[in-house]
Structure formats: structure tokens, C-alpha cells
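pls design
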């Protein structure tokens, strides 16, 4: 017998971890996200939201040819992040950690390809 509208339980997340829009939060409150960049001049996801607190951002460059970076330019958000990933070669990744306390929108860019639209936004919401 086949049923079309079952009530199977939803998959459960691991204890001490939660996620929203690609951001995971560990038991100690560290918020983590991985941004993927390829040969198409985009960050995936290009937008994400975190709460005030500690944040870890990993840039995973899956490009076959292009080198990328991740930079939060000073003066374009409510406060300066002060951390960046200057260079990530194809098929490599790098990670930064920082704290944010001021809600608002923080633009981030690939400094090599900003003119081609390789940009994104981190929103901080209390």
C-alpha cells in the first residue's frame, strides 16, 4: 500500500548544532558558514544572516582556473570586520574568524573580481 501524505518524522539535526540559511551554530555559539566560489564570479550563498557574536567564514574555491579572495572592505558596514582571506587558489579553501556586535549589513567582495559582480552581504540581526 502506498501513501501520498505520510507523517514521517523530519530529519533531526545533531545535538548542539542548528542551522539557518547555511549558517550552523555549534554548542559554544560559534556561527559558521562556507561560501563556495567557482569560475562564475559568484559566492554561494551570496547572502547570509548571523546574530551578534563569533563568526567563522570558510571560502571554498572550487574553480578550475580562477584565484579568489574574501574581503570585508573597511567603511562599508556598520563597523569594520578587520579580517580577510587575501588569496585562495583553485581547489583550495581558507577560513577566518571574527566577532561582530553591531547589527546591519556588511558587504563582502572578491577583490580580484568585484567589478564582475563577485560580491555578497552578511546581515547581522540581533
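designed seq:
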Amino acid at each position: 500500500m502506498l501513501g501520498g501524505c505520510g507523517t514521517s518524522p523530519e530529519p533531526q539535526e545533531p545535538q548542539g548544532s542548528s542551522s539557518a540559511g547555511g549558517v550552523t551554530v555549534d554548542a559554544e555559539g560559534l556561527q559558521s558558514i562556507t561560501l563556495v566560489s567557482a569560475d562564475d564570479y559568484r559566492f554561494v550563498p551570496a547572502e547570509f544572516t548571523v546574530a551578534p557574536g563569533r563568526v567563522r567564514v570558510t571560502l571554498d574555491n572550487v574553480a578550475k582556473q580562477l584565484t579568489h579572495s574574501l574581503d570585508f572592505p573597511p567603511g562599508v558596514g556598520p563597523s569594520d570586520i578587520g579580517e580577510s582571506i587575501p588569496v585562495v587558489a583553485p581547489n583550495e579553501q581558507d577560513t577566518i574568524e571574527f566577532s561582530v556586535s553591531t547589527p546591519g549589513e556588511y558587504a563582502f567582495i572578491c577583490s580580484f573580481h568585484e567589478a564582475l559582480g563577485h560580491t555578497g552581504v552578511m546581515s547581522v540581526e540581533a
